[in-house]
Amino acid sequence: MASTDRFCALLSLCAAALFLDAGLYAHAADVAAKPAAPPPAWIDTLTVSGAVEAGETFNPAYPPNGLNFGQLFTDKSNLALLNQALLTIQRPLDPNATGYDFGFKVQTMYGSDARYTHFLGELDYIIPNRTQFDVVEAYGVVHLPWLYKGGVDVKFGQYVTLEGAEVISASDNLLYSHSYIFNFGVPLKHTGVMTISHIDPLVDIYAGVDSGVNTSVGWPGDNNRGVAFHGGVGLNLLDGNFTILATTHIGPENPDVPAVIAGCACNPNRALRYLDDVTTTWKVTDKLTLINDINYIHDNAFHASGYGVAQYAAYAITDWLKIVGRAEVWRDAEGFFVAAYPGNFDFVNVEHGFNFLNLGGGSFFSYGFISAPAPTTYLELTAGLNITPTLPADPALPLIKALIVRPEIRYDASLSHTTPFDAGRKASQFTFAGDIIVKF
Question: Which residues does UniProt assign to the signal peptide (predicted)?
Fold first, then answer.
């Protein structure tokens, strides 16, 4: 009897196993029969976004000319500014693309920052007010599965520079105010063609040609008849936690106007300007990020050089609070690069060469900007916070994606016994500033 029971139990187990196997095979067959999800359509990866930034810089010295010397985008003291209202439409390249792919980006700006970001000859004189309109970028980009495992990307049109640790878009920077390097040591934008060769996951090579710094094409879009090279090398190390981008921009940048020709005793179409920059970003931990920016600029026409270094640090105290800082030393060896621009058109006038008067005898007079009284080494120390509160799920605010508040305190000083601040009366200045960024 016991043998019969054991035999029946064995049959039951075998039957259960057969049914289980049959169920598993049926499920596997169903999974295999279902087609793989198709990749998203090209149009589905198109995005439309916006951001608005407004801020103010309080200068307790109340400089009589109303300018915070050494600063451009935050140059107006004790005055609220609509810095940026950005609208961005883009379809980025698929970072995992193994075949051909195409994308584009168009970004426009309305605000006081536009005074310093214009492409020459494009919308640079249509609005005489402090808040102006600008096309920040307008380019197409193609991924070509050629030459290297990662392929080659080709960008063509108008795009922001490779150089520097800071960018035009406010929400992508750690601080409200900008460094001397960003203001005076690197380009902002270019018109041309740029190639990015993905040699392997560790190395990217950049190479391109453009019409120059902040220029478009043809007169008055380009202030001379020279072309420039822009390129560099990018290294992606420690699984992307440590990156190095070494770049250069080489080309004629001075305006081809009679007063400049007389002043430099040169051909502005051939006298080169070198702008070199190395930016290193190290994500030390999930909370701590260090960024270093080393910069050198030299202008052959006027035999002028500028160079320096900026060190950034950002530490996330919580998921909504980050403490940030920047320490910078930058040398304007001939007093050629650092300046303030009181008028709304003064900066583009300088780039065009409209503010130079030929006095004869190889001398010229410039107006429309305020330079330092002598060659100066600048020290800049800035500390601030990034506050990104969690927004309530309020049906009345369906479009707001993020809010960023960035208070800061900044100290600028001359290390050369010069007095560039407070309308030429002081060797240092304190500013207290802050901005609010709303992202849509």
Answer: 1-28
